[in-house]
Amino acid sequence: NLIRHVFLMTCFGVMAALVLAVFYQYNREPSLIEYGGPSRPISRIYFKSDGGLSHEWFGKQVKLPRGTALMDVNIEMLSDQLEADGQIAYARVRRAFPDTLLVHVKERKPVLRIRLKSSRGNSKDHLVGNDGTIFDSGEYASKTVSGLPYISGIKLKRSDGDYVPIEGADVLTE
């Protein structure tokens, strides 16, 4: 009986130690594991747009310091930064190893123009995409902008400082 009791207590002790070890392992801070070592600096950026935005435009919008390593680029944040521009409907940023950044943007197609006043009282033409998004006309040639019909007499709504897309803009362009 004594041997059996010692055996059971030993088993219980080992099991308790294992449970504590597993608990400790799962509750400690995760460690950083580096799988591939440092990446190479970006040597090429391929920028492609289905509209009028150019590689030069991208260079003005995104300031990547010389020598930035490919893996140091937060591609999700870069996509979000590009999509914050009203002209961009969708941005896809990818890495092409060992040293190339690939950027593809889908632009909103302007279908209307609208004149808006700034808080300083200045008027400026803006464009309306087929999804109703209002964006600055800055990157479009004046010839393109002047050929679009004006829309007026509508009340625009704002949310978080931006204009809310105009409902029904897609119907106007059919």
Alpha-carbon Rg, integer:
28 Å
Find the structural class using helix and strand composition: alpha+beta
Determine the strand fraction and express it as a percent band.
Answer: 25-35%
**Count of β-strands:** 8
Please state how the strands of the largest beta sheet are arranged side by side: 1-3-2
| Shape verdict | elongated
Task: Give the SSE layout.
Elements: H1 2-27, E1 44-49, H2 55-61, H3 75-83, E2 88-96, E3 100-107, E4 110-117, E5 123-129, E6 134-136, H4 142-146, E7 158-159, E8 162-163, H5 169-172
Summed up, what is this model?
This protein has 5 helices and 8 strands, in the order H-E-H-H-E-E-E-E-E-H-E-E-H.
Protein model, in words:
- The structure is a single chain.
- The protein has 174 residues and is of the alpha+beta class.
- The chain contains five helices and eight strands, in the order H-E-H-H-E-E-E-E-E-H-E-E-H.
- The longest helix is centred in the N-terminal third of the chain and has 26 residues, at 2-27.
- The model has no long low-confidence stretch (mean pLDDT 85).
Keywords:
3-stranded antiparallel sheet; single chain; alpha+beta; 174 residues; 29% helix; 3-stranded mixed sheet
